[in-house]
Design goal:
The complex is a heterodimer. Chain A is mainly beta. In chain A, about 5% of the residues lie in helices and about 55% in strands. The two termini of chain B are about 30 Å apart. The chains are: A mainly beta, B mainly beta.
């Protein structure tokens, strides 16, 4: 009961999303801590296509790089469930863990799984070939919550929410080689795809710590509000942070390490976030209203209606984005209108009609996430005038049907020339 | 409006000329075909008639000082979008003219060469909603010209046939809040024309 109370607090405070580089699945897996299931969401249809029972209070998930196995930490019964992804069933007996397993990560070679035991202050290692725990048990800081592994598989970073530090584990020797002090209650973390930086959410201090992974030194703290989870785009340019207190997602530019754009409103108590392997969409688990929000990463807008999943969704794993969102592409060319002494630069956009089954009644055009026009669905071209030279512009065409549902059906980008 | 303006300018020049009656001077009404050499000016507006008046005042023997005022107005279409655009150009120049074979009051052909400095007032209007609607500015350059004056005996009237090259660029540096790239307007070009003059 004590553990349950503790965990119920953490459900609203911790992050368990795992940015695993999936290559083939267009499903999103959502761990529902309230009904002990994993929902399988087909992102093409936005429908839950399967619900897989797992252990008591699933809070963390990680998938092997070959997408064959999904590991789910069950925080209350202290086990890990293993799901056969292809058949969407649990295989084998639950693997016993330490007390209160939360965060989980798979090595890039897919050979080992590292599981953080929150109340036993250690990390267990699972051999994927046998699905058994192997030595050694790695002791870390106080009440560890989350773990992330560098892309080269050399190091793992563990956030210790009780001791306000991060343990660095050498994965060759499986020993803690460094401890980095951060702000209060570090929980979620993510490592950039190039492996150079780790971003950590500090819940009690409302900051995001940035660690240089080459030196294991804290670089800076970025002020944010109520950070609960974090995900980094595959190109490493942006960090998406769920703000549990304000029901929004914040976007951070990794070059400047500053919050950019407007907060993206999502559902109630967003607690988990994952980005698909192409960097097209982010999926947000809203534990307060039992839904999944889908954010288009070009426009930084929530698309479609929230997807109903199980009770208290917390953790996510996302694969490829839905093919329906990728085709057809947006065709863009840049043109120049010239007077005697002035040149005006504009982009000409053209696209195919929205999917017939969607019943679109109007379309919106977004440039860099900002709506710039509303047009009838019969119009399939648009000119975007008075643009800057030598700049990347990203566009999205969004269809809206009579029910108010929206669908991004065409996206594209272009870098304008440096022509005068 | 254009003719009235030119008549007014010609009147002013005539008054000036008569006040300078102690010196030999000419007043000319000039018409020429302006052939632009600047790429955009040529493509957007093309060539056309340039009207003007010129006052020549003897300075020393065959050396004359001159002042010229002209006007060139054209409409055209912007490149690519074909939006309507208008150009008004008022070149003003002063310089020295050397007249060869100049026989007082005798029938003669008098060739001449001249060089001078030029200031041009440029005004451009555009109908495109994405371009700057209207902008005016001044430019400075030089002019070189040559021609032949034909003046019959015992007559004050003369004819002038001439060619001219004007090198002129105008920096239009205001975008008026529009996101456009601003460039230097090249107004250079050749003039081929004739003039009817009066000799005082």
């Amino acid at each position: 009961m004590r553990i349950l109370k503790l965990l119920s607090l953490f459900v609203f405070a911790l992050h368990f999303s795992l940015s695993v580089g999936l290559q083939a699945t267009s499903n999103v897996f959502v761990a529902n801590s309230g009904d002990n299931t994993v929902s399988v969401v087909d992102v093409t249809t936005h429908a839950v296509v399967n619900t897989i029972p797992v252990g008591d209070m699933p809070l963390g998930m990680a998938m092997t790089p070959d997408e064959s196995l999904l590991y789910v930490t069950n925080a209350v019964d202290n086990t890990v469930s293993v799901i056969d992804v292809a058949n969407q069933v649990v295989i084998g007996a639950p693997i016993p863990m330490g007390i209160n397993p939360l965060g989980v990560a798979v090595t890039p070679d897919g050979g080992r799984v590292y599981v953080v035991n929150h109340l036993s202050n250690n990390v267990f290692i699972i051999d994927v070939s046998t699905n058994t725990v192997i030595a050694p048990i790695i002791t870390v800081g106080s009440t560890p919550t989350e773990i992330a592994i560098t892309p080269d598989g050399a190091k793992a970073y563990v956030t210790n929410s009780g001791s306000n530090d991060v343990s660095v584990i050498d994965l060759l020797t499986n020993t803690v080689v460094n401890t980095i002090n951060v702000s209060n209650t570090p929980s979620a973390l993510a490592i950039t795809p190039d492996g150079t930086k780790a971003y950590i959410t500090n819940q009690a201090s409302n900051t995001l710590s940035v660690i240089d992974t080459a030196t294991d030194i804290l670089i800076l703290d970025i002020p944010v509000n109520s950070p609960t989870d974090i995900a980094i785009t595959p190109d490493g340019t942006k960090v998406y942070v769920t703000d549990g207190g304000n029901q929004v997602v914040l976007v951070i530019d990794t070059l400047t390490n500053t919050v950019i754009g407007s907060p993206i409103p999502v559902g109630i108590d967003p607690i988990g976030i994952a980005i698909d392997s192409l960097g097209k969409f982010a999926y947000v688990a809203n534990s307060g209203d039992n839904t999944l929000s889908v954010i288009d990463l070009v426009s930084n807008l929530v698309i479609g209606s929230p997807i109903a999943v199980g009770i208290s969704p917390t953790a996510l794993v996302a694969g490829l984005p839905s093919p329906i969102f990728l085709d057809p592409p947006l065709r863009i060319i840049t043109a120049f209108n010239q007077d005697l002494y002035q040149t005006e630069l504009y982009n000409i956009l053209s696209w195919d009609a929205p999917p017939a089954g969607f019943g679109a009644v109007r379309c919106f055009i977004l440039r860099d996430g900002v709506q710039i026009a509303t047009i009838p669905t019969s119009v399939l071209t648009f000119e975007d005038h008075n643009l800057k030279r030598h700049r990347l512009y990203q566009y999205a065409i969004i269809a809206q049907n009579a029910s108010g549902e929206t669908l991004i059906f065409s996206t594209g980008s272009i870098k304008t020339l440096n022509k005068k | 409006m254009r003719i009235r303006s030119l008549s007014l300018i010609a009147g002013v020049v005539c008054c000036l000329a008569s006040s300078l009656s102690a010196l030999e001077c000419f007043v000319e009404a000039r018409t020429a075909y302006f052939l632009p050499t600047g790429h955009r000016l040529k493509k957007i507006y093309g060539g056309g008639a340039l009207y003007g008046v010129e006052l020549d005042v003897q300075a020393y023997k065959q050396l004359y000082g001159w002042a010229n005022l002209g006007y060139f107005g054209r409409s055209g279409r912007t490149l690519l979008d074909r939006d309507r655009t208008w150009l008004n150009m008022v070149p003003m120049s002063v310089g020295f003219k050397f007249i060869y074979n100049q026989h007082e009051w005798a029938p003669a052909w008098s060739p001449y060469v001249a060089v001078g400095a030029e200031a041009t007032y440029l005004n451009v209007h555009s109908r495109s909603k994405f371009l700057v609607h209207s902008e005016s500015d001044w430019g400075f350059g030089g002019v070189f010209k040559g021609g032949v004056m034909i003046h019959p005996a015992t007559s004050h009237w003369l004819l002038d046939v001439y060619a001219e090259y004007s090198h002129m660029k105008v920096d239009m540096d205001r975008s008026h809040g529009k996101r456009v790239s601003i460039h230097r307007a090249d107004l250079s070009g050749y003039l081929f024309g004739g003039a009817l003059g009066y000799r005082f």
